[in-house]
Amino acid sequence: MRMLRNIKNGVSLLVNFIRLAQDPERTPLVIKIVDTFYDMGLYTPVVQKLRSDPRTSAVLDERRHLTWVDPAEFVKKYPASSLGHSLGSLLLEKGYDGNYFRVHDGKVDELYTARWMGETHDLWHLATGFDTSFAGELGLQAFMMRQLRTPQSILFLAGGLLRCLFKEPSQLEPVMNAVVRGWWLASVYPPLFAMNWEKSLSTQLDDLVANFLKGKLPVGDAGHVGELGACPASF
Fold it and tell me: Which residue of 8, 52, 81, 90 has the fewest CB atoms within a 10 Å radius of its CB?
């Protein structure tokens, strides 16, 4: 039975990966891929890493969620250039549903982690400065892979490079620049999984980023990690 389940998961992963490579905008396929990784037990190392740090472990214990996100209301409610205003503007510009990932069972650490990452994905874009372009998405995946070891990040990065090889060779340079920046930035930033986004929606985004670059979470969030360093020539 276990072998049959592994075969089924492998086939599902391959099929959904090929479909996503053909159309990266198909978000439901991302959820299917993440769910398959969860079913394969590949989110267990992610949770182990999160549990090893009191700052990120606290989020798993609290089972944090964002309040209902209304993009138009966020633009009106929060100051210009704040995190909340920037989130609302991004969602309106792209036509994204800010509540797309809200419905999930949070009883299991691994599944909660996967869904919480989906729920806060656009906030990670804003916090790291990566846009939602092909290169920007892969840059963020590199950031997530270093901070969290998320299995989908490895798959998406591999798929992105294959897409550069076969379909969009002109994207190789911007993609690699973004990947290198994301990998380095993840070593400078504090663990973004520990960020209490709800408390910082009124904070200027530039101020948050300035603190992140110093390895600091906002006051009220635990922890301080590392110091700002120069981007190394190689990894």
Answer: 52
pLDDT for res 13: 64
Backbone angles phi, psi at 231, to 5 degrees: -70, 120
Higher pLDDT, 227 or 179: 179
- Is residue 5 over pLDDT 90? no
SS (H, E, C) the chain: CHHHHHHHHHHHHHHHHHHHHHCCCCHHHHHHHHHHHHHCCCCHHHHHHHHCCHHHHHHHHHCCCCCCCCHHHHHHHCCCCEHHHHHHHHHHHHCCCCCCCCCCCCCCHHHHHHHHHHHCHHHHHHHHCCCCCHHHHHHHHHHHHHHHCCHHHHHHHHHHHHHHHHCCHHHHHHHHHHHHHHHHHHHHCCCHHHCCHHHHCCCEHHHHHHHHCCCECCCCCCCECCCCCCCCCCC
pLDDT at 87 over 80: yes
Measured distance CA(5)–CA(216) in Å, rounded: 43
pTM of the model: 0.83
